[in-house]
TrEMBL record:
Species in which this protein is naturally found: Aquimarina hainanensis
Membrane topology term: Multi-pass membrane protein
InterPro entries on file: DoxX
Membrane-spanning residues: 7-26, 46-64, 69-87, 99-118
Subcellular location: Membrane
Stated name of the protein: DoxX family membrane protein
Amino acid sequence: MSSTKKIFPLVLRIIVAVTLIQTLRFKFTGHPDSVYIFSKVGLEPYGRIATGIAELIAGILLLIPKTVWIGATLSLGIIGGAILIHLTKLGIEINNDGGLLFFTAIITFILSAILLWIKRKDVSFF
């Protein structure tokens, strides 16, 4: 396997994992923006904490070579839910962020899908 074929998935894994993990400080410290978002959808505080735990698990799984596909799948579910909530309840822009959270979710979703596609041969249910 060429070095590009090894490095590209690694870079994607790191980007998605860092994106997921860097949001944890907002969820776990009760940052006002995070509390606002989860209050607006009726999931504060339990949904905020559970989402943070799920994102932490997905981020860790993405960094372990044998579990990348599990982390990518979990990330798709979490971020897919975030995108759906943006489109149905929150809107694109949150607290004048210019859509930053929404577009970050879109990019993270796409990168997670690419990772899952790259690792599709590793997917095992047994």
